[in-house]
Amino acid sequence: MNMKMLKHLGAIALSVAILMGCSSQKKDDFIVQFSIHAEKMDMEQLTEALKTAKAHGATRVVVWSSHGYLHPHEARDIEFNREAAERAHSMGLKVGIGINCCMRKGMPQDWYAVNRLGQPSDEFPAYKERYKFLDPHKPEVHQYLKETIAAFTLIPDVDYIALDLVRYPDVIMAAGLRPRYGVFSAEEYPPADYCYCDLCVNTFKEQTGIDIRAVEDPSTCAEWAQFRCDVVTDLVNDLAQVVHSRGKELAAFVFPGPGKAIQVVRQDWPKWNIDAYMPMNFNCLYETDMQWLKDVTVEEVEASHGIPLVSAFYLSKDWQNRDNETDCLKRGLTPSELEQAIADAKEAGVQGIGLPYALMSPEHFEVMDKFFVK
Ligand SMILES: [Zn+2]
């Protein structure tokens, strides 16, 4: 056999290896992610939860401690996550740390976003007391969040950071949540419309020539909506740089769509330089049905341009009584709907699904076993 032939055979072998590698990688790489809220768990309870998740097909977990309001200088926050990540890793689970971004209390007042009425969000939060949102355009906010996230990327067993609340407040509240917040408008709600601080208003004016404070109905100004989408995108991409420079991945929980995400919270997430988009396809919040869930997933896969799309579901733990419930947060998927949702998501071409561990009933676990446990 001459060298040319050897090279040729080598090239064929390489191609076959790549093809086989791709197909087996695709199959094995389907992401099954559980979000585990560990706020009230000690390490032994968390270990049990990790074992249960793993036994029912989990490939990765997002661990939430301190409700995601982690602080880089709190030894407790770092140590708990270090131990949690080590234990999850030892079980073969990929580990993400859940971190909230823009909704934070106790920060300097000039870091907070200002609404259309000129009110800072820490003193006049929209909807609820906890709705205190930082201004994602402020350099100080970028710096603070970068430092927070960097501290957690130093934990060796952490594979990724899972961002939540990287957005503005909901300028239009989800239909199912309106009774809870006492706001019933399906239009933009001025007290929840941000940010009209001097920095944002002036930057926008420099870029477009438009003085947004002089516009009678800012909700009709497409450039203004886009400006704020770009502000959020810049923040995420800034955070991504930090995470990627530490050799870790960045994922983010986002609003569905991306149409709804852009309209409601200014998340133009297909532009984010991250490693997984995790839309919260919680149909119960929008008072929509399984068909909506299916359609929005198709839209999201198309928008995700090859970045892994992990469709996150919301469940009804007490599903036998689901139809008697009026609270939308208790009207998540039943086990049979979860089965349908997984089948539809796979058909739409998602790379994974996400589930809230705390809302899994035994019957929901059975559905997972059917799909993901051999
Ligand atoms: Zn601002």
How would you portray this structure in words?
- The chain is an alpha/beta fold and 374 residues long.
- It has a single domain (29-111, 129-182, 226-309, 319-362), classed as Alpha-Beta Barrel (TIM Barrel).
- It contains eleven helices and eight strands.
- Strand 7 (310-312), helix 10 (335-348) and strand 8 (352-356) form a beta-alpha-beta unit.
- Residues 1-7 and 9-27 have low confidence and may be disordered.
Q: Features of this protein?
A:
374 residues, alpha/beta, TIM Barrel, eight-stranded parallel sheet, 11% strand, globular, binds zinc ion
Structure summary:
With 374 residues, the protein is of the alpha/beta class. The chain has one domain: Alpha-Beta Barrel (TIM Barrel).
Question: CATH first level: which class?
Answer: Alpha Beta
User: How would the global form be characterised?
Assistant: globular
CATH architecture: Alpha-Beta Barrel
First and last CA, distance: 45 Å
- Please, how many helices? 11
Overall radius of gyration: 22 Å
Kindly state the number of beta strands: 8
Instruction: Give the assembly state of these chains.
Output: single chain
Number of domains: 1
Largest sheet properties: 8 strands, parallel
Low-confidence stretches: 1-7, 9-27
Helix content percent band = 40-55%
Mean pLDDT: 92
CATH topology: TIM Barrel
CATH superfamily: Glycosidases
What order do the helices and strands come in, and which of them pair?
Blueprint: H1 3-28, E1 31-37, H2 43-55, E2 60-64, H3 75-90, E3 94-100, H4 139-153, E4 160-164, H5 178-181, H6 198-208, H7 222-245, E5 249-254, H8 259-265, E6 276-279, H9 290-303, E7 310-312, H10 335-348, E8 352-356, H11 362-372
Parallel strand pairs: 1-2, 1-8, 2-3, 3-4, 4-5, 5-6, 7-8
Helix pairs in contact: 2-3, 4-7, 9-10, 10-11
Bound molecules: zinc ion.
